[in-house]
Amino acid sequence: MTQAVRQLQVGRVGELVPRVDAPPKVKGEFAYASDLVVPGMLWGHTLRSPWSHARIVSIDISEAVSMPGVHAVLTHDDVPGQKTYGLEFPDQPVLAIDRVLYYGEPVALVAAEHPEQARRAADRIRVEYEPLEPVADMERALDSPDLHPEKPTRGHGYREDDRANVVRHLVIRHGDPDAEGDVSVSGYYEVGSQDQAFLGPESGLAVPDGEGGVDIYVATQWLHVDRAQVAPCLDLPLEQVRIHLAGVGGAFGGREDLSMQIHGALLALHTSRPVKIVYDREESFTGHVHRHPARMWCEHRARRDGKLVNVRFRILLDGGAYASSSTAVASNAASFALGPYESPNALIESTAVYTNNPPCGAMRGFGAVQTCFAAEAQMDRLAAALGIDPVELRLLNALKPGDVLPTGQAITGSMPVAECIRAAAALAPPAPEPLPRDVIRLPGGAGNTTNGDGVRRGVGFAVGFKNIAYSEGFDDYCAARVRLSPDAWAEVHCAAAEVGQGVTGVILQVARTELGIDDVRLAPGQTATVESAGSASASRMTWMAAGAVRDACRAALEEQARRPGEEVDVERIYRHPRTTPLDPETGQITGERAHVAFATCAMKVVTEVDVDLGLTRVVWIGAAQDVGRAVNPQQVEGQIEGGTAQGLGLALMEEIQTRDGLITNASFTDYLIPTALDMPPVESVLIEDPEPDAPYGVKGVGEPPTVVSSAAIASALRDATGRELTRIPVRPDDICL
Amino acid sequence: MDVLTPTTLVEALRLKAEHPDAWAIQGGTDLMVALNFDRARPERVLNLNEVRELRGFTRQNGSLRLASGLTYAEIEHGELRDELPALAEASRTVGSPQIRNRGTIGGNLGTASPAGDAIPPLAVERAEVECASVRGTRRVPVTDFITGVKRNALEQDELITAVWLSPSRAPQTFMKIGPRNAMVIAVVSLAVAADDELRACFGSAAPRPVLVTAPRDEASSFPERVAEAAAPIDDVRGSERYRRHALRVLTERALKRVLA
Amino acid sequence: MRVSLTINGERHEADCWEGESLLFALREKLGFPGSKNACEQGECGSCSVLYDGTLVCACLVLAAQADGHEVTTVEGLAEGEELHPVQQAFVDAGAVQCGFCTPGLVVATADLLRRSPDPSDDEIREALSGNLCRCTGYAKIFDAVRAAARS
After folding, report:
1. Domain assignment of residue B5, yes or no
2. Which chain A residues are within 8 Å of C43, Cβ to Cβ?
3. B240 domain-assigned
4. Which of A136, A416, C20, C45 has the fewest CB atoms within 10 Å around its CB?
5. For the domain C85-150, what is the CATH superfamily, name and number?
């Protein structure tokens, strides 16, 4: 919980600044992608596969095209350019060609005057499928028929692996992988598939420009990479495809991959009319990638005094039907598998596989969430086996500057792991509240299931960390353009996607700080007026946008000094320190670093568990997070609280359930996210240890709380129940049966 | 699609007789989901919102007549709370405040979901459903009214107009399990009342509600009896084993409350 | 069919397909996109409006049912440029991130404070338990509600 309302300031770096987008948002005036309306607009609708794996025998649109109000019915035949696309590997058809590989895969498109007409026409598209046996289990994928025999991810510098359905196989060998310790603990852990569940469903509006090109207004995380994927499929040069950022109703990784962009543009160009596509909630579950479900086998070996000697970790990730960012998720899961602890020896194996399950890709935490859950459970087990306090064990092994990661990378920047651990451990949770209480302050909440019977309290602790920005040689840059007027105002152009995280404020604060003026505006984000900003993901956007805007502002001031009294307009590209790929055989760095920088969050959690019914209530959470430097403390706290909530969801309730690859709970009735009665107060401590390589010393703050909170909550549930709880989300059955 | 909006009960019954295929809509909390997600496209919808006779509740000779348009919010916050405490507790667990403002007991019975939250507390009060048509009015016990999963005893030309019950004034309670602490469909739910006998009825644990009764002195075996009467299944919301286990625990706890 | 209703004190009319929700009509036909389309099944509260003074999910009201009724949307709360106290509190407390849930929460909070001007923390949590937020973890929303109650 935070102090109610604090003094708001004008808006330099480090100050507490109200968001410029907040007033229009509270008034209902902020234009989200689904709010867009233009005259003459048609509604697009996507016909999706009811099968998780099938051959398409035929598609007959003849009846659909003659339905009332229908302006277009399109199939793969109507894709004028490249038939496939993909965030990193173009393995995904724009519209299914001769087969479908997952439930909900787009097969055909309809544009009509009213969405109901489009739905009715879609009903009349006759698709004949020949269902095939789905590859539904990630462990059996390697022995199943190859879903992508052409191996789309081969030839990108990864380890050669001829087994079926391997997206990426990675091995990190560090020191002597056979080194023995005095004590060893082993465990097997599972993490279910989580949905980003952003509240604003995938939406956008495509407007033909009358000259063969198209403008796409869409909720996305990365405008320029959208353009790079859309243009080849439309067979258009880049400049004829202009992507504009429409209001984004949350993202959390789920808007990195394309949703309606190509589809809307195809319909708009085909009908010469603007076309709006808005997914409904059920469709949204098939409209974006999810967090990878994971299975993990771990062994931790340590000396009697608690020092880690060797960690062996095998990770299997279900990437679903298409590659998306699975190769990077597999690498991240491996890179952070040990948690923020030093071990002289390690053997880490990470494999992402193709299946006929829903495609998985980026979600807040990006591979580190899954391994943090397993690694922290192992640390608790090790502490118990050694009879050492779990916090002390973590402090003893905490990474610090100068230490070496399993990839061989030496930590050169900020790494205040011990400080985070000490600060979180020092937070005092509230004393147990006496009974009787209102049921909404008991496990089971409004369900009125207990008056205190069966309720036990548990305290948990965990630490998590992950990388900031992209890794392994990905050329990760951000552009900003500044128009500076002699009349003391400035306009900043930056394509950084405001997805709710507050990057708009960061940009304005940096510009005000650098330019020394208050009248600074941010122009709408679009591809036509400024170079790429890179993605609003990987906790990178604050760092990268701050760097780019700072550099552009400084350049503008220099330019203005050369040309006094004139308006100047300059664009600058900012790059973080370069990274290089991991060696495909050893998983060791091939240059100075594979990752740019790191951020840590330590968390203490108090839960109450009704051990007879398996129902839970998280009572209190204390977090200490390494934030580099807080650009806007209020927004940083908001990221910690919100990121913690998403981890709470994964720990307790959120899982996409599938049967033979078909999603069985694609709704907010059955895919549950935390409500106001599920979230406890979060007490957060910001550890400000400036990152030497970053502008103003900033670090990204969005992901570390999500990485750690599932693990910390699971730890508290174990303390309350005495159960192993090796799978999240923890089900009532796991506690009480 | 056609929307028919009668303003009197007589008109509503006439329209239902003329259009037996029409789907009745009151609070919309079920039917609208079906419409929004393209799961149903009824030819006709009979909008009961404007029929005053279907609002509120009345008392007649010691009996309560809850009109079918009575909302959960009215039960939760109004004067009925003291007379029908289990139904009031159940109402508090229904969806969200927004849903409770619109959802009605008539809708709960009409939908006839095994998870319907109002059904167990009405069953332990031996409530009867008033079904009306142009042919007349009849009453059916709640446990007979629900005939299966999303099936009820309503004739094609009938509407649910009310629920009748004589409040037992017995100590009673309602409990509902869900995977989070608000806004859930019941994984399993239970209402228990105790006067000269023990009565229990569960939700989400059988295709239709079953009223389980026992003499007061058989309280110790009652939890097992309730669990035995259930026929739960495995589904996305919970497992068969958990549901049966939870029913035992809930019954034990409910008895502790109502026999205290 | 023709639907005629009062929105934020003014009379409006629209031609609707009979199966349309009040939410769709408000957003796409009547020019009030402030109420949001997050789940369209009454599970998130993003489309919360006052319907004849009662807090409801606009997605669960058939547009035809709203004929002749009064609706207050998030667009009807502010007085011109002046934010409603609840809106101001949400801005000041940092209760807005992506903001997709915000209109529904603002309407639900205004409704709560009208019924209960000085709500307890439990009351706030329960009253807002039907409004999902995916970004904030709710803490700053509760701060905003408490601040609005004080103002």
Report:
1. no
2. 667-669
3. yes
4. A136
5. [2Fe-2S]-binding domain (1.10.150.120)
For residue A678, the chain B residue with the least C-alpha distance is: B181
pLDDT less than 50: residues of chain A: 1-8
Q: Would an 8 Å CB–CB cutoff place C96 in contact with chain A? A: yes
Residue from B36, B180, B247 whose CB has the most chain A CBs within 10 Å, to mutate: B180
Q: What is the pLDDT of residues C72-126, one digit of tens each?
A: 999 999 988 899 999 999 999 999 999 999 999 999 999 999 999 999 999 999 9
CA distance C43 to chain A (A): 6
* Among the listed residues B156, B164, B151, B163, the one whose alpha carbon sits nearest the alpha carbon of residue B13: B156
Of B45, B99, B182, the CB nearest to C42: B99
Give C21→chain A minimum CA distance, Å: 12
Q: What is the mean pLDDT of chain B?
A: 97
Asked whether this chain's domains A33-132+201-248+255-287 and A404-466+597-736 adopt the same fold, the reply is no
- Residue B218: give its domain's CATH number: 3.30.390.50
> CA of B42: which chain C residue's CA is closest?
C19
Our count of domains for chain B comes to 1
**Cα A38–chain centre separation:** 32
Q: Comparing C-alpha atoms, which of A294, A710, A194 is closest to residue A462?
A: A710
Chain A CB within 8 Å of residue C107 CB: no
**Residue B67, SS3 per DSSP:** strand
Decide if C125 touches A, using CB distance below 8 A.
yes
Question: Domain spanning C2-76 has what CATH number?
Answer: 3.10.20.30
The residue written with tokens 């679903």 in the block is A320
DSSP line for A297-321 = EEEEEE-TTS-EEEEEEEEEEEEES
Second CATH level (architecture) for the domain A33-132+201-248+255-287: Alpha-Beta Complex (3.90)
DSSP A647-700: HHHHHHT----EETTEES--STTTS----TTTPPPEEEEEE----TTSGGG---
Neighbouring subunits of C (3+ Cβ pairs under 8 A):
A, B
One of 2.60.40.420, 3.40.50.10350, 3.30.365.10, 3.40.220.10 is the CATH number of A404-466+597-736, namely 3.30.365.10
Delimit the domains of chain A by residue range: 22-30+477-575, 33-132+201-248+255-287, 404-466+597-736
- Chain B residues with CB-CB distance to C108 below 8 A: 97-98
Mean pLDDT within B13-40 = 98
Task: With CB atoms and an 8 Å threshold, state whether C62 touches B96.
Answer: no
Residues of B in contact with C127 (CB under 8 A): 97
Residues of chain C found within 8 Å of residue A681, distances taken between Cβ atoms? 139
Query: Would an 8 Å CB–CB cutoff place B5 in contact with chain C?
Result: yes
How many beta-carbon pairs below 8 A join chains A and C?
203
pLDDT tens column, B80-124: 999 999 999 999 999 999 999 999 999 999 999 999 999 999 999
Residue contact C94–A638, C-beta within 8 A: yes
What is the pTM for the complete model shown?
0.97
Contact at CB, B253 and A444, closer than 8 angstroms: no
Residue of chain B with shortest Cα separation from C53: B101
Q: How confident is the model at residue B191 (pLDDT cuts 50, 70, 90)?
A: very high
Instruction: Select the residue of B29, B32, B96 nearest C129 (Cβ to Cβ).
Output: B96
Nearest CA to B226 out of B241, B214, B240, B238 is that of B214
Structure tokens at A150: 């052409």
* CB of B12 closer than 8 Å to CB of B51: yes
pLDDT confidence of residue A47: 98
Cα–Cα distance, A486 to A493 (Å, whole number)? 18
2.60.40.10, 2.60.40.1120, 3.40.640.10, 3.30.365.10: which CATH number matches A22-30+477-575? 3.30.365.10
Q: Which residues contact C128 (CB under 8 A, 6 or more apart)?
A: A676, C45, C105, C108, C109, C112, C138, C141, C142, C145
CA torsion B7→B9→B14→B17, rounded to 10°? Answer: 120
